[in-house]
TrEMBL record:
Keywords: Signal. The keyword Signal applies. This is DUF6807 family protein. The keyword Signal applies. Residues 1-23 form the signal peptide.
Amino acid sequence: MMKIWHLQLVYLLLTFAVTNSCASTDKWSSTVTGNNITYKTTEAKKPVKDYKGNYATIVYLENLGFDKLGQNSNKEDVNWLLSQGYRVIEFDYKKNKNASATTINKDIIAINNQLASSNFCGLNNCSTNNSYILFEGYRIAKNIPYFKDNPDVYNTPEAYTEGDMLYMDIIYPANTTKTVPIVLSFSYSNSYATFDSKTGKLTNANKDLRTFLPYTFAGFNDSFLEGLPAHNMAWAIADHPKYCPWGSGKPINGKNDTYKSYQVNPDAVQKVKSAIRTLRSMSNDLRLSGNIGIYGFSRGSTAGSMAIGDKNVPEFENAGFNTGVSDDVQAAALGPGVFDYTQIYNSLNDGDENLETRCPWAWGRLEDNHNLWETMGASYLVESSKTAPVLFFYNTDDAPYYHDQITHFKTKLDRLKVTNSTLINYGTGHAVPQTSEALNTLYSFFKKHLNPSTVTVSIKKNVAYFTENNDSILNYQIAEKSLNGTYKRANYIHPLYTLDGAVLTEDFPEDHLHHRGIFWAWHQLYIGDKRIGDGWEIENFSWDVTSVKELKQLDNSKAIQANVFWKSNQWLDANSNEKPVVKETTTIRVYPKETNYRLIDIEISLLALEDNMRIGGSEDEKGYGGFSPRIKLPNDIVFTGSDGIVIPNNLPVKADGWLDISGSFTKEYKQSGITILCHPNNPQPSNQWILRSKRSMQNAVYPYPGAKAVFLSKTQPTTLRYRLIIHNGNANDFDVSTLYDIYKNLDKKNSDQN
């Protein structure tokens, strides 16, 4: 017992030693809660101080209005921070519901502004370049080296002849079973070597300015990075690649301040790539998923933009640390910056006069050295659609050249079909997003691309189920299903769900009991002159689904492939068994949900197993047959094609490429719908549709004219491809035409098969 008591005493003394028992409490006025909250300040026994003697400080937000990710107790994490030499100021929100994700950013802004003013919680000695806001459950990895600087690049000051190390700081969840993505930002404050003319020596005065608050977070009310943990993400900030005062720098034997307000390649891009590799190399130790995003503003945007491209330039690769680790990023949010220096002369007096004057000092005249100028910007590194998705953000009343830079860069991304979007006029001037609405746009963008939803597929004996985050998407019917032994059917989709979870399709509807969900079938089935069945009416016809397997995908979609044999009791072998007449191979691929829609691809491949096999639609002027959705039809149903509203007719109507069906499918009478895209490689013509607004299916007619049966080959499969867009709203609420253009250009085979 004495030994146990002694160990407990030692632990208590160690804890006392770590915290130094120097703690005080008081109140702080919170914008988020609308009242005073309690804070507690604890000094470290061995405090870390910056060059000026001010204290490294962590403002630790605890008991927030959302779940904590890290599994340590707050006491454990605070004691760890104290052991690292940080002064810790704990803000206790007492689970206030207003201290929620994104809303908490208001207090982040207020805290940073007070820290920057050297007047925070009664303290005037908190470091303005070594103070951070951490959410409960998170820790900080400080001063992680990512590149050794070459002093010959910017040549400032002259005494700086041995390169310094560039560093990053990483804020990560502590003790968590769940890995998280991370967003990396390159500082828009420069660290640099400083020469003291009085002592004749270099000093550390400006070596650690990654988060110099007057120039970074506080200077622009930038709360995005520090707010990421509220969205289950980590974040990191790295020294800006230009290790030199922003207004200085020159080539060897060049003019002074040649590099005023810009950076130069290959130095900058090499550092960016090395930082990403270094960060990814630490994923296992810090419980990071390996998915990395870039957040950049102003000079930080110019630097960060160099991470998104897919072009391989040998001179830019494999410099720095962790060579062999991927330097790919999965997304980037880029504010105003410079992405293509060849565009700076588009307009005069638009804010980039400094570049117009000094860039020729470094690279010669643009007219004579266009290729060299190109290599200095991110646009040069963008070569194909493999470029990471980008969200641009800017205010149109900022310096006009920023708008021009983004416009030209976005035009290139659009041409290459790189996913991109813009957030415009969230504020005024040269600023970052600060409102909850604008910040949510940024957070949602990174959630989508760094931690995308996962589609799962479960293949059972009777049915294959597609789900996403426990939400049902669709079922594919494998085993035969009937209504009291009649209308036996298999090989179709039902139920198909809306994004809100309502059932969109119908099975065994009273008006047409043979209709079933999303199906593909034909009235006419001939071998030579013998009619052997009717797959539409399900007469003398059956589907034998012999196998269903999952296909490997290179993205977050899921796909199955079913092998199906068509059989008829009118076509028997020598033993009076039904003999297969057509081999059908059908692939169903489901993509994760986007903001307001989901994509589902269906490919049907038909190969005749008998000579002179023919299929056809109804033997009348309608000619219906082929790919057919049987969906619920509310009273406000609207059909829309590429040329506008389409009115159903008794006979086929034309709607080139795609057709949308929208209405109030849910109990809440919210608009939603389904868009059907026909791939242009389908047998032509494929622009004929049978549409009905009540008690019927909708039909993308094939073959046309449907009354005339067409041959199926025994050697070359007849392939039909369709894409469904399950969406909220109607056809005017998203860009169907662009989605159709993307679909048209897809390769015929879009998955790696087992």
